[in-house]
Amino acid sequence: MMGDEDGETPLLSDTGDASTVHVDRPISDEKTPLVSKGSIQTEEGDIEVLQDDGTTFSETMINFLKGNIGAGFLSLPFAFAQGGYIVSTVLILLISAIVIHCILNLVKTKQYVSKQTGIQKISYGDLTARAFGRTGTYITNAALLVTQLGFICVYIIFIAKHINEFSKKFPYQIYAIFVIPGAILLGFIKTFKTVAPSSIAANLCLLYSAIVCFVYIFSHFGKTVSAISSCPISDNNNETLASCLTAPLPMPSTSVSTLPIFFGNCIYAFEAIGLVLPMENQIKDPKQFPYIVLFGMGFVTVLYTSFGLCGYIVFGNAVQGSITLNLPNDVLAATVKVALCIALFQSIAVQFFPAIEIIERVTEPWIHSKMSGKKSRATYRNVVRAIVMAALGGLAIAIPKLGLIISLIGSVGGGYLALILPPLLHWKLVKAASRWEKARDLCITAFGVIGSIAGTYVSMKELINS
């Protein structure tokens, strides 16, 4: 196993009671549930960790869909503008197929390791530790932090920008500050089961918004659509810039130089990779989880492809970082924006779970060394959660470039977690894999590396230029 020579508890232990937490254990220990409800005891008998009875198929499906469908799908028409309607359609279907394969491979690898070790609760970081040691764990946890916390930053930007559309009394930054206290309160929620009921309401809000956006888009096929603001895609031709104000006809393909931005936005849209193992760890029957992935991702793929394609065809190069910013300023569009703000506000809690789990594992040894009482430790954990959420709010205030931030997060964290690491883990840990499977793993990894590097470079360049 992976213990140190000095007798430290291994990262994945084959023995021991799953209800015991060792405070000197490495941060990647996953013997206890990633998110739980109830109480367990440390060696001192005084730390309380939440533990539940597991989520049902329907609860997991609801959270899986909610974790996938967020602000990312609203930026897909903007992504399609970077590749053109033919090239982007082909690429999004290809990327979706690869992402689904990688998710299933990740679950397969986790279940394979669980069967070998007898340990059911295993995190993404633990799998990386078994495959590549502590360095791999740190890189994976860093990517998870970038991705999950980046999602929250984007949600705050999205909500604040749409509030600013309703009222110009204050600048965007002030509305972002208004969002932060609510985000901090959501950060105190500690289980997926707690947010499942509100996820239903959030999914209904997203469904309503998607339906209205689709109806608006389809009703304007072949018509001249006035853009709300100037074209986000730079062009030195003044005539082209002027035509952007009336949504020019979309192109079947665009410059290769903008495809990395499409890649980043697309990977960002498939945003549930960091939630896969936490959800699989909590479901009552893990054998059901692959069906959740297939059904859930199939629905998401159809939604994303049709939404991105139709939105781009209607608005052309005038499409904004979020297509809701292209909608007219009427009552119906206002209800869509309010519904989306509610849905994405609820998503903050869901996306915060994996990131804060990593942070709390890092800080737990310090808490035990400095604090003796349960109440003081619980208070400190909540303070850490509040500080992290406030820092994310600060980033949202400082860098409000929605489309480019989405592309950067997708390229930096999403590409690594969704396309690079899952095939590498399968290649390294599943000994029974065939030569064909191992060759396929390496090809997918190479695709992910190239896309992530290009997407990061172009996104950073555009952010600096802007």
Strand residue percentage:
under 5%
Q: First CA to last CA: what distance?
A: 49 Å
- Tell me, briefly, the overall form: globular
Give the number of helices: 15
Sheet with the most strands, sense and barrel status: 2 strands, parallel
Note down, in words, how this protein is organized.
The protein is mainly α. Helix content is about 70%, strand content about 0%. A two-stranded parallel sheet has the order 1-2. The longest helix is centred in the N-terminal third of the chain and has 43 residues. It is globular. The N terminus is likely disordered.
Entry summary:
With 466 residues, the chain is an all-alpha fold. It has 15 helices and two strands.
List keywords for this structure.
single chain; 466 residues; mainly alpha; two-stranded parallel sheet; 2 strands; 1% strand; disordered N terminus
Blueprint (SSEs and pairs):
Layout: E1 20-21, E2 41-42, H1 57-68, H2 71-74, H3 76-83, H4 85-117, H5 124-166, H6 172-186, H7 192-219, H8 238-244, H9 259-269, H10 276-282, H11 289-315, H12 331-370, H13 374-398, H14 402-429, H15 435-465
Parallel strand pairs: 1-2
